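Check out one such.
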Amino acid sequence: MAFSETASKEKKSITLTSVIAAVFLTGFKLIIGFLTGSLGILSEALHSALDLVAAVITFFAVKFSDTPPDEDHNFGHGKIENYSALIETLLLVITCIWIIYEAVRRLVTHEVKIEVTVWSFIVIVSSIVIDFSRSRALYRVAKKHDSQALEADALHFSTDIWSSSVVLIGLIGAAFNFHYADPIAALIVAMIVLSVSYRLGKRSFDALVDRAPQGLHERVEAIVKEISEVKQFHDIKVRESGPNKFVDLNIHVDKSMTIQQAHEISHMVEQAISGKIKNVKVMVHAEPESH
């Protein structure tokens, strides 16, 4: 059930480019933020720094989650991806607390002096372009390999697009001497990030407590119903671990069948489910049909 070597290399490659992009954006925003005194840009720099940490976490999560099952981890290492997503959520919340505190402080104390230069706009527009490129690439690979860690990383970069757009609006306001637009923009950034944090945290927590993935039970049911050799089925149990899914179920077959025939039907059910659902490990228990 482990990923192929090609898939693993593709996931590592896309996360490495994300780390490089995050390093560039964080440094660029910090320099311009300190030079201009823009809280909006500094909050974006912290957001990008968070993306850098998240990208590094994702890189190692993807690397180790693809490790095959071993004697101590019989179901593989997929939950490392779920833990990485939860850590990213906590980092997002901590960053938001600082942004909200600093924005409110500046609004209350009226410390909103900002020097808007052409570099202020260059750094934000560059950020939007890079974030758009990164998020699309990450979402494509995340969907291809059903990776929650990559999806979380893509969500980070896509959130940056919206938050950078808000900061851009704040800078335009500051350019027209409406300096309060900057801390207000920072507050909006924080609200956006908190919203993303909730979604990331909920999904990673659901996976860690083995909550059934939404819609997976129904998909398994629909697949098994199409197999005429299965007279009845019950006790479908589903869970996920990183990009991997696990399905257990009981099927009833004609009681006149031999053990070999019942085994072949069980194998047929496993293949049918595996053929329509990616990264799934199926365990089927066959029972004689009861009248």
